[in-house]
């Protein structure tokens, strides 16, 4: 399968947007402007960008506690995202959810989820729903290597395969469940082999190669849309930062500096940039300009978030229940 | 003369009617299809609506309860059956972290109009993992509505309301009531949530009773009326929202309060109602508030022990006598 040039540029733009957004969070977090927890996605951008590029706007995703990348790739806007991270009323969740719970039903984001493995059954339900309603919508379900040990992983893959649901299970294997390395939490090397037990295709891809991710996701989405059932895609990747901002030495308690540096060499963004330049798909000048444009968009988002008001105290009691007659 | 049908038949009728009216209503659960549900609440529905809408699920409570959350978020109105409330513990993340709080956590984006049917109650010799009554636990979680019907009439009206409601509902049935008959109209009707019913009027003492405790209290009230003691019995019918007004009005009239609920005494439904009355109507009380509940032990198997465990006439009568000593 050949990927068109403008698609490649699109993948690059999405990855860069995620990277720059998150790099800005590092700074804002350090300055105390982003309260709570911030689990950054830096290094894993190829997974979200590659998968979401194969989805339509009316398709669904379920995301994780490390969800900024997924929701940006699915089309979330930076202004309400940043405002949500600041805890402001103008945020995606009116400041009630924060970094871990960005949701927007209008573009199929069924919520980032603070519970490891929490999104898997929800994705299955979205798949059932598409089937019940007779649409061809697909759901991409992101989760980590750690989550794949949870019961919900097994229950969900079983249900999805049994009913041939249009779900693509995307395991982001970044090698660590917080500080516990994969060899300490799983006797297997490839999580994708678990697909065999559920009679569905399971593939391993280089999660730092956006083109490879895109190609496998495209196949899985096509299969799902054709009502042939779910696929498990395991993307081998790595997070450069710690589990969350504030994790000492970017996770240096449980990882070596050499390991981190070796993965930085496999930077998915640099890899695609090189290809784009070498194959003369884009000029280096244009890449620099793109970076500047995105940074300006982030500047505007920071400004928007900073100038937005915190929620009024009455908001504490709002939206606990849907009120009768509420649209 | 209105026809008499059982509590289980009334629920069945409510499900059937809602499924006929709205194709978004689907049923999921273990053994609910061919088997008709272990208490026959969904009997015959598979034949009428087919396996797509009446889904016999694998034994995967977290999987299918979570799937209902995803389906509800994307436009369906699923009704899931958990065979015994005891098994809800394996789906507790889906109930407490997902179903209950998504609407709030997402700042009002997305709603979860689903019903989770569970049942409580000891007395069938099924020991500590098939007889529990921990419905108070759901009353503790903001975002959930909790229905608790004590009659066939209430069961039908509350179920139709639960399915049409845009909020997640925990629908708590009582397994000793499934075969109790009562008058139920053939036509459709709903019982609004948050409206208690005075099941018996009286001036001397108020019993706020739930589920089977309503039946047990009514029996005693009839007997004591012959002694000239007039007991008023208030059935909240929904625990969330709780109709404080009706309870307080009754207490203000009688001055004596006994709360009877089959859940454990500590931190239970009765504890909550007692505290609410203490906060809002203390000076109307002639006597201390008493609670008749299950003891703080697991449910025992051996018949005499189980009988001792179940709160009934043997517990209600001395409590009433004690309260009547205060003038």
Could you tell me the number of beta strands of chain A?
7
For the biggest sheet of chain B, the summary is: 7 strands, mixed
The greatest interface here is: A-B, 48 and 44 residues
Helix content bin of chain B: 25-40%
Oligomer: heterodimer
Provide the β-strand percentage band of chain A. 5-15%
Helix content of chain A: 40-55%
Output the helix-strand order of chain B: EHEHEHEHHEHEHEEEEHEEHEHEHH
Structural class of chain A: alpha/beta
Strand order of the largest sheet of chain A: 1-2-3-7-6
How many β-strands of chain B, per DSSP?
14
Distance between the termini of chain B: 42 Å
Largest sheet of chain A: 5 strands, parallel
What is the global morphology of chain B? globular
Mean pLDDT of chain B: 98
**H and E order of chain A:** HHEHHHEHEEEHEHEHHH
Shape of chain A: globular
DSSP strand content of chain B? 15-25%
Number of helices of chain A: 11
Which residues of chain A sit in consecutive blocks of at least 5 with pLDDT less than 50?
none
Terminal-residue CA separation of chain A: 44 Å
């Amino acid at each position: 399968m050949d990927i068109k040039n403008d698609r490649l540029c699109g993948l690059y733009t999405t990855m860069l947007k995620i990277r720059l957004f998150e790099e800005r969070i590092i700074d804002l977090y350090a300055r105390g402007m982003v309260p709570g927890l911030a689990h950054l996605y830096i290094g894993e951008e190829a997974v979200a960008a590659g998968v979401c590029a194969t989805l339509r706007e009316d398709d669904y995703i379920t995301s994780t506690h490390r969800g900024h990348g997924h929701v940006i790739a699915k089309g979330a806007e930076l202004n309400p995202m940043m405002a949500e991270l600041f805890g402001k009323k103008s945020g995606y969740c009116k400041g009630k959810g924060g970094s871990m719970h960005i949701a927007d039903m209008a573009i199929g984001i069924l919520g980032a989820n603070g519970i490891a493995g929490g999104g898997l059954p929800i994705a299955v339900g979205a798949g059932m729903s598409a089937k019940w309603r007779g649409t061809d919508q697909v759901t991409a379900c992101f989760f980590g290597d750690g989550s794949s040990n949870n019961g919900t992983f097994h229950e969900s893959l079983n249900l999805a395969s049994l009913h041939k649901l249009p779900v693509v299970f995307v395991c982001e294997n970044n090698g660590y469940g917080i500080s516990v390395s994969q060899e300490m939490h799983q006797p297997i090397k490839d999580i994708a082999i678990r697909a065999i037990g559920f009679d569905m295709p399971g593939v391993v891809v280089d999660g730092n190669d956006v083109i490879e991710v895109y190609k496998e996701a495209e196949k899985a989405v096509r299969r799902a849309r054709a009502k042939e059932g779910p696929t498990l895609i395991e993307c081998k990747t790595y997070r450069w930062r710690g589990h969350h901002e504030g994790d000492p030495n970017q996770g240096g308690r449980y990882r070596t500096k050499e390991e981190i540096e070796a993965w930085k060499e496999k930077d998915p963004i640099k890899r695609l940039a090189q290809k784009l330049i070498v194959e003369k798909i884009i000029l280096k000048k244009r890449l620099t300009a793109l970076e500047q444009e995105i940074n300006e968009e982030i500047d505007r988002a920071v400004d928007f978030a900073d100038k937005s008001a915190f929620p009024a105290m009455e908001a504490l009691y709002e939206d606990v229940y849907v009120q009768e007659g509420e649209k | 003369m209105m026809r008499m049908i059982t509590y289980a038949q009334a629920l069945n009728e409510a499900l059937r009617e809602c499924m006929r009216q709205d194709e978004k209503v689907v049923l999921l659960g273990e053994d609910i299809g061919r088997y008709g549900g272990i208490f026959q609440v969904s009997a015959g529905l598979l034949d009428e609506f087919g396996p797509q809408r009446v889904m016999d699920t694998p034994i995967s409570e977290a999987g299918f309860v979570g799937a209902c959350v995803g389906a509800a978020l994307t436009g369906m109105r699923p009704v899931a059956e958990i065979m015994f409330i005891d098994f809800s513990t394996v789906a507790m993340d889906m109930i407490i972290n997902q179903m209950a709080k998504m609407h709030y956590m997402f700042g009002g984006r997305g709603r979860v109009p689903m019903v989770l049917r569970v049942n409580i109650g000891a007395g069938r010799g099924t020991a500590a993992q098939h007889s529990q009554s921990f419905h108070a636990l759901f009353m503790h979680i903001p975002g959930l509505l909790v229905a608790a019907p004590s009659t066939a009439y209430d069961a039908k009206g509350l179920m139709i309301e639960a399915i049409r409601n845009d909020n997640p509902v925990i629908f708590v049935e009582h397994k000793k009531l499934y075969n109790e008959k009562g008058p139920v109209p053939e036509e459709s009707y709903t019982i609004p949530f948050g409206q208690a019913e005075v099941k018996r009027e009286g001036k001397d003492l108020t019993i706020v009773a739930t589920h089977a405790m309503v039946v047990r209290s009514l029996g005693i009230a009839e007997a004591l009326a012959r002694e000239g003691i007039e007991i008023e019995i208030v059935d909240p019918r929904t625990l969330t929202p709780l109709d404080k007004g009706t309870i307080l009005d009754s207490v203000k009239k009688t001055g004596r309060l006994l709360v009877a609920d089959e859940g454990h005494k500590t931190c239970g439904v009765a504890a909550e109602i007692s505290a609410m009355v203490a906060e809002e109507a203390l000076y109307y009380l002639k006597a201390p508030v008493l609670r008749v509940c299950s003891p703080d032990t697991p449910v025992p198997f051996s018949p005499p022990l189980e009988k001792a465990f179940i709160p009934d006439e043997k517990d209600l009568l001395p409590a009433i006598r004690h309260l009547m000593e205060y003038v």
